[in-house]
Amino acid sequence: MSNAIELACPAKLNLFLHIVGRRDDGYHLLQSVFQLIDWCDVLTLKLIPENEVRRNNPIPGVPPEQDLVVRAAQLLKEHCRIDRGVEISLKKNIPMGAGLGGGSSDAASTLIGLNTLWDLHLDIATLCQLGLQLGADVPFFIFGQNAFVEGVGEKLQAISLETQDYVVIFPNKGVATAQIFQDPQLTQDHAPITIDRFLASPRSYQSNDCQAVAVQKCPEVKQALDWIYKAVPNSAPCMSGSGSSIFAALDPKTDRTNLENLLQNLPKGWIGQIVRGLNKNPAYNLVSSD
């Protein structure tokens, strides 16, 4: 068996995000469709003889106890009671605080990769249970397929989506998720929908109940929405997750050359990408569903 593994860690888009209620413990009940996209971080895991979790090129300002890949590795070590070590390197391409799930994807890939490198043979269900301790979106990336999502994000049902290209804009200003969900103006009673209704008319349900609050708290969200309206006429831009990234599906007739030129001249600090939807996480086949 190899002593190292490299994994692409894909981002995701919330094709819609509806808040359909609230539990007694305060957690919001959601409905969403999570779409994997080919905007990826790159994770490298290498076995080392020392019994420690070693982090190369740590993210500036993020201490180890808050670093999701370190936490994921430590959690797996403790759960399986093993005395093996790993050196972790991570190339960050997905912007942090963008609502694209980059950190959750990195943590999921850490669990998946170490499950292979450490020869643990944990199944998807077990890895998802561990992942949920790290963050609500981590199980989705372990699940590894596009999903119709319900509950507080823990109920996942695989969904088949047509291959689609998107433009994604991150205006380099994050929105605190807690602030969004604690705002009294947040919609909390969106009528639930079914998978069949969504699939019959996906564009009809492309809305995000967090977006109106995010626009009030972060002017850059409105600026990014306006930028896509202007750059991609007749599109329907929408915020992903609790923000602040904005995306829009691209029509096959979209002038890609012109759009790519526009992306080269975004406002200072903004990040923009043309991405393609994925059917599965690239690490999907590394873990058993048994």
Question: Could you characterize the architecture of this molecule?
Answer:
By secondary structure, the protein is an alpha+beta fold. It has two domains: 4-159, Ribosomal Protein S5, domain 2 (2-Layer Sandwich); 165-276, 2-Layer Sandwich (Alpha-Beta Plaits). The protein is 29% helix and 27% strand. It is built from nine helices and ten strands. The strands form two sheets. Strands 1, 2, 3, 4, 5 and 6 form a six-stranded mixed beta sheet that branches. A four-stranded antiparallel beta sheet has the order 8-9-7-10, covered by helices on one side. The longest helix has 16 residues, at 102-117. The two termini are 22 Å apart. The model has no long low-confidence stretch (mean pLDDT 93).
Largest sheet: 6 strands, mixed
What does the average pLDDT come to? 93
Number of contiguous helices: 9
Query: Roughly how much helix do the residues carry, as a percent range?
Result: 25-40%
Rough shape? Answer: globular
Question: Gist?
Answer:
The chain folds into 2 domains: 4-159, 2-Layer Sandwich (Ribosomal Protein S5, domain 2); 165-276, GHMP kinase, C-terminal domain (Alpha-Beta Plaits, 2-Layer Sandwich). α1 (68-80) runs parallel beside α2.
